[in-house]
Amino acid sequence: MDKPAAVQAIRPDREVTTRQQLPYFVGISGSTTGAMGLSMHLVVIPPGARAAPHVHVGYETGIYVLEGTVCTRWGAALEHEVVSRAGEFLFIPPGVPHEAINLSAELPARAVVARNHPAEQDLVEPYAVRMAGD
To answer: Which band of pLDDT confidence, cut at 50, 70 and 90, is reported for residue 19?
Structure first.
């Protein structure tokens, strides 16, 4: 017999290092709640740190910056950039190469990350940055 659907509260109790080389606190996902089409986490970018360049294969990502200022470089050569500050949302389409950089050397940046896929990391792939002319 199937287990009935239930509302669940999740309090992440430990950080995990992601394929992007950033600390995440896993919240809602297929493995934590049985979610089928959503994952939602807290990411902390330490002072002056950056994510390893990567792509999200087959899913969209929405980010809400809680604290800090983050520069997201994106594109085949990471040639574009957008700066997000506390209180702002950021949308990343599937398959777009990108990296996030905390612009503060003193304070961490924190953001809520939501994806339309239940896996925390299964579809995150490292990205080798292409140089101009490649």
So the answer is: low
Structural domain includes residue 52? yes
Q: Looking at residue 33, what DSSP letter applies?
A: H
Q: Per the structure, how many domains does the chain have?
A: 1
> In 3D, which of 63, 56, 74, 46 has the Cα closest to residue 119?
56
Q: What is the CATH number of the domain that holds 71?
A: 2.60.120.10
C-alpha–C-alpha distance, residues 75 and 101, integer Å: 15
Note whether residue 16 is domain-resident: no
Instruction: Show Cβ contacts of residue 28 under 8 Å, excluding neighbours closer than 6 positions.
Output: 10, 35, 38, 39, 40, 41
| Average pLDDT of the chain to the nearest whole number | 87
pTM of the model: 0.84
Strand segments (E) across 46-108: 54-56, 61-67, 69-74, 80-85, 89-92, 98-102
pLDDT confidence band for 2 (50 / 70 / 90): low
